[in-house]
Amino acid sequence: MTNLRLVLLATSALTVMQFASTASHAQTSPIVVAQAKEELGPDGKPKPKPAPPKAAPPPARPAPPPPPPPHAAPPARPAPPAAPPPHAAPPPPPPHAAPPPPPHVAPPAAPAPHAQPEISHPTPPAASPPPAAPHAPTPPPGAPAAHEHEREAPSQTPPPGGARPPAATPQATPQTQAPAATPNAVRPQVAPNTAAPAAQPNAAPAAQPSTGPGGRPPGQGAGPNTGPGPGGAPFARRAAPTITTPLPAAPAPAAALRPIAPGAPAPGPRNVNDFRAERHETQQGGRTVITEPGRVIIRDPNGESFVRHDEVARFAFGARDIQTHQVGGESRTTVFRPDGSQIITIIGPDGQLLRRIRRDQQGREIIIIDNSYRDPRAIGGFYVDLPPPVIRIPYDRYIVDAADAPPDLIYDTMEAPPVDRIDRRYSLDEIRYSPSVRMLMPSIDLNSINFETGSWEIPPDQAAKLQAIADGLNRAIQRNPREVFLIEGHTDAVGNDVDNLSLSDRRAESAAELLTQQFGVPAENLTSQGYGSQYLKEQTDGPSRINRRVTIRRITPLLNGGMASLPPPPPGTIPPR
User: Are the CB atoms for 560 and 428 separated by under 8 Å?
Assistant: First the structure.
């Protein structure tokens, strides 16, 4: 019986020990297995050996193997940035396992760190960088204010942090990683590992606007806004005319046109003093209109002035015959030349030029100028306000000084394309009276011709100065018979505005006449216009040789909408948009 009791007691004791061990098995299962092996050896007397379980902590040293699983999980933490929550669960167990070792013995905690490096070596080397990432979150608890900037430095120090930080960090990491979208944008700033680079990205955008506001290089941005305007004058955007009705027509010739022998002087006055007393000033529709022989000057209330004249008279030089007929409401003037060709000028009922046509000996016609279409956006049908063009060529190629330019440069300028995009074709009046339209084309300045005071006649000794200009014009017209060139006249600011405007217009016409009579430039490919002192190249009110100049400008692309090599569209055709 005694033996039976002993066996029952031993069995019950063993059962109790097993239940006790199962309770701790959740925390240290390997330890329980070690205790079971020791109890089998002593046979019934192992009861006194419940103490060994206390010695079990030393076996806890092998316990580090269980921790590997938690640490094995971190290797998988390269993915945590994408889904930190799933890994947030593994960290919590370590805190529960961590408390028991400290109370028993502090040393076990020390060996654990040593065991970790041993385990990290067997693990793939790629896993070593990830540990830095999991440790990186540890700094936020200490300094949550610096998320990205603090992340790099702490990543080097966290290893000694023990297992406690991971337990708290997983909760913090989701908060810092939640705005992961912004860190991604900030990463380039953090990549340098210093806050300074972060300032560089901020500075970079600032540097871009420095060149961006203009949208183009500094030289180009300044050019159109502060650069030269028509004739080389500084561009100043002018107010649109106050009166928006069409300009009055040029005065009709006092007598029927008759041919003028080549080289013969044109009839009429040759000096401004000859007709100053014949001027008449009237008020028409809010404008001041001044008429004089061969000219009409219109002054708008905003201060702008325009001068108009009849160009048909210039075609009379060298003509064999001149005939004028009324066809419907149009006036058709035909100039017959000795070679059998004809120049036909059609004037509308309102006195405005409609078309200029050249008809050769075989009867083939070439439309040189077509004014039949009037854009409704033009103010009064004669004025257009455009933004300054973007000038992408050197200044000395945009406004060429004829005195210093070789012949090839003069010709190249006469063939040069517009400096900026042309949106549509413009009428001759829109080109004449809209400086922003003329600015689209390069020009050639000739200021070496000396005129007598108040006169527009070009002395014989000055005519040779037009030789290079004439050669370039003839060469360009031979290449394209539809080319049209505007001859502009400019004066200095000495004298009254009315005299200067009339004088400049007559000097431009005189230059065109000389180019035809002495150098054979076809008259129908030229048109002239005076601007007085409205576009000073040198800003002075005194005498200025630079301001007294003649400017030559190719306007074919403006008349044809940028398609200089193509003929003008049929009369009245609306240009493509």
Answer: no
Distance (Å, rounded) from C-alpha 10 to C-alpha 15? 9
- Under a CB-based contact definition with an 8 Å cutoff, are residues 501 and 305 in contact? yes
Residue 218's Cβ-count burial label (10 Å; 0-12, 13-18, 19+) is exposed
Q: Give yes or no for a contact between 557 and 575, defined as CB atoms under 8 angstroms apart.
A: no
Q: Indicate if the pLDDT at residue 176 is higher than 80.
A: no
What digits encode the pLDDT tens for the residues 58-107? 444 544 555 444 444 444 444 444 444 444 444 444 444 444 444 444 44
All residues at 6 or more sequence positions from 529 whose CB lies less than 8 Å from its CB, including other chains: 307, 432, 486, 487, 488, 489, 505, 508
Angle of CA points 233, 236, 239, to nearest 5°: 130
Q: What residue has token string 């159109």?
A: 224
Residue whose entry in the numeric block shows the structure tokens 């409401």:
329
Q: List, in order, residues 6 or more apart from 228 with CB less than 8 Å away.
A: 234, 235, 395, 398, 399, 537
| 237-274: pLDDT as tens digits | 778 899 999 999 988 887 788 999 888 888 888 899 99
User: pTM for this structure?
Assistant: 0.61
Q: pLDDT averaged over the chain?
A: 72
Q: Are 47 and 13 spatial neighbours (Cβ–Cβ below 8 Å)?
A: yes
Secondary structure tally for the chain: helices H, strands E: 22, 14
